[in-house]
Fold Dephospho-CoA kinase.
Amino acid sequence: MTKLIGLTGGIATGKSVVSDYLRQRGIPVIDADIVTHQVEQFGTPGLSALVDHFGQRILLSDGTLDRQALGHIVFSNPADLKQLVRTIDPFIRSEIFRQLDTYQNAELVVLDAPTLFENGYAHLVDEIVVVYCDPVTQLRRLMKRNKLSIVNATKRIRNQWPLQTKCDLADTIIYNSGTMTTTLTQVDRWLAKETK
């Protein structure tokens, strides 16, 4: 029977590093961020639902989603962020289940979801792995990666559950404040236990 692993962490904690490595090791990964992009593409019911709520201001001139405009709206107002999740989540959930069906013969499948807890996916998985890094490293990485000011980066971090809360609920914690080698060694150790 397939074991479903929930892989999560905070924004810019290095979850994608772990996710990419698991893919390289041949583990099927369903990436909730990629799924979100898929269900928000031009012409999809998901994008139509977003436009119904947030209006044309979230679209670029070619009719595709302006992620920057939407991000600015939802990260400035918690009520709008909740509405975004309520609007798009049914489409995301449906696609995740569709992809899960294609991996029925796999021993392990990973659901890579930054908001595993926040959006109510934790109860779907058999085990939870949290990728952790210290708050200073997280803030620095996010500012650099997304070209954000310290104020905007902090706002985005605060829109997620505290990392410590996620760690308290995890079955396994991968510490990712050090070198890539140290991080991936922890992943190898965890994987060895899961697949023996």
Notes: The radius of gyration is 17 Å. The longest strand covers residues 3-9. The chain has two domains: 1-28+107-196, 41-102. The beta strands are 3-9, 29-31, 108-112, 127-132, 172-175.
